[in-house]
Design a protein that fits this description.
single chain, alpha/beta, GMP Synthetase, Chain A, domain 3, 13-stranded mixed beta sheet, 14 helices
Length: 512
């Protein structure tokens, strides 16, 4: 009988791959200014991480430490992360540019032994990546004793509500190389691929897929910051086989002139998640890649469960997020009872193989049933075949004139308009309606945006009249984070405090 493969730590796995093929490229880095691409071979990745690890160790980092990394995508991000894991430390990737108040709140929760960033006035030992490399340059580059970080990864959250928290993955930071169910071939991801990292490394999906990709001997193509035209160029140049994208990235790519003539034939899988994807946008990507190469996953950073669906399944269940994968799923109503088929309720999941998938620093645990089902506040419903469909979170739901309006549905209608580049729909406090449906629009050409009358007519062709926005606002750039998400609570607050002057009211359809 073949002996079962044993899990391997991230630090040891990097050493193994560097020994196996030291001159093979581990990652290409693509600077945002369009400069020369930098190739980092496995030997450089390993030896640089080893030197940085010894530098961190001299500064007190060990198995009981945490390390904050506040950088945009860069080669040094990988050196620092892998170095910390080689010492058994917990890593928290953070946005390179974030308000000092939010940054300091997150660092106070983490209490890091050291921080690698370009920030100033930080209360913890803080070093730029340039200093990190300079001070570690002459240190020993040989492998370190094997240590398993436990825990190894954490992700910051809570910015949308104004309350910072850290989500920690409590398990041992190790994997079995090539193990099918861990690698994720059910989403088009496999060992040895070329993977495009288009999103920011402070976001859970790009961070996780990039490092799992390295663990599984992927060659990464890492963009400093996302650019739609640059992403398509990289896909063609490097023969990208797998990529995670948020729907905002997907939309920017399909809006490129001549995109249908570009070469996407190398793709084996494109996974999207992080936000609702309009049906029209998903269909456009299926035209580019083929339905069997477009995957969608739904879950949470807390890793309590997920659903997965492939494009050809989606065509049979349009709008669905798929069926549970490796977990049980329930939809519960406000009283905690099982919701009927087709009835919107709160989504609860329970993983099959783990007792604990997360813990919070800075927040109480997520809502949990006595038998272990966890909810992070998402709403949805199931069809008769057990496929999940998403509704907006309760906190985002707009109750206007007593009727429920789901922002994602309205946003999907607006972004289908060829002259709309981006749209966010908010519920603004209103004396008559309770909450007024308000649309924030970024036009393809901000100098010549579509008229309110044109957008109103377009929406009313696709939505019930009560769902159509009552006010519109045009912006030159949507205030999205690099992950593609928006802070709806903050946007509502800003528009509730004297911003009515920017809003354009829709003239009732029966008036000329």
């Amino acid at each position: 009988m073949e002996e079962a493969k044993k899990p391997v730590s991230w630090g040891l796995r990097m050493t193994m791959l560097a020994d196996e093929h030291p001159d093979k490229v581990a990652l290409y880095f693509l600077p945002v200014d369009g400069g020369a691409h930098r190739a980092v071979a496995w030997r450089e990745l390993e030896t640089s991480a080893n030197r940085v690890a010894r530098w961190m160790r001299d500064l007190g980092v060990n198995e009981n430490s945490s390390v904050g990394i506040g950088l945009w995508n860069c080669v040094e991000h990988f050196f620092a992360t892998i170095a910390a894991w080689k010492l058994g430390a917990l890593v928290l990737p953070l946005r390179g540019e974030m308000p000092a108040i939010e940054r300091d709140a997150m660092l106070d929760l983490l209490n890091p032994t050291l921080v690698v960033s370009h920030w100033t006035a930080v209360s913890y030992p803080n070093f730029t990546p340039e200093v990190m490399l300079a001070e570690s340059a002459d240190l020993d580059e040989s492998p370190l004793p094997d240590v398993v970080a436990h825990p190894g990864k954490s992700i910051g959250s809570g910015g949308a509500t104004g309350r910072s928290k850290i989500i920690v993955f409590p398990g041992r930071w190790e994997l079995v190389p090539g193990e099918r169910e861990l690698v994720g071939t059910f989403i088009g991801f496999r060992p040895g691929q070329v993977q495009l990292i288009a999103g920011p490394l402070y976001h859970n999906s790009p961070f996780s897929f990039s490092h799992i990709g390295l663990f599984e001997d992927n060659t990464l193509v890492v963009m400093e910051k996302f650019d739609a035209a640059g992403a398509v160029d990289a896909i063609e140049e490097y023969g990208v086989q797998f990529c995670f994208m948020a729907p905002t990235m997907m939309q920017r790519i399909v809006r490129l002139e001549g995109v249908a003539e570009r070469d996407f034939s190398s793709f084996e899988g494109m996974l999207h998640t992080a936000a609702p994807c309009p049906a029209w946008l998903k269909r456009e990507w299926m035209k580019l890649l083929g339905p069997e190469k477009v995957y969608e996953a739904f879950g949470s950073t807390e890793a309590v469960g997920a659903t997965v669906i492939r494009g050809d399944e989606w065509l049979e269940h349009p709008g669905s997020l798929g069926r549970p994968s490796g977990c049980d799923l329930r939809i519960l109503d406000a009283d905690g009872n099982e919701a009927a088929i087709g009835e919107v309720g709160e989504i609860y999941m329970r993983p099959h193989d783990k007792d604990e998938t997360y813990y919070y620093i800075g927040s109480d645990p997520a809502k949990t049933t006595p038998d272990g089902f966890v909810s992070v506040g998402d709403m949805g419903w199931l069809d008769t075949d057990g496929f999940l469909f998403l509704a907006d979170r309760r906190v985002d739901l707009i109750i206007s004139g007593g009727a429920n309006v789901f922002p994602a549905e309205v946003e999907a209608a607006l972004t289908e308009h060829r002259d709309v580049y981006d749209a966010v729909v908010l519920g603004i406090p209103d004396g008559e309606w309770g909450k007024r449906v308000h649309a924030v629009i970024q036009a393809v050409d901000t100098r010549r945006p579509p008229s309110v009358a044109a957008l109103d007519a377009f929406c009313r062709e696709r939505l019930m009249s009560y769902k159509a926005p009552k006010t519109y606002e045009y912006v030159d750039e949507m205030p999205r984070m690099a992950s593609g998400k928006v802070r709806r609570t903050l946007m509502v607050r800003e528009r509730s405090d004297g911003a009515d002057a920017q809003m354009i009211w829709v003239k009732p359809p029966n008036l000329k």
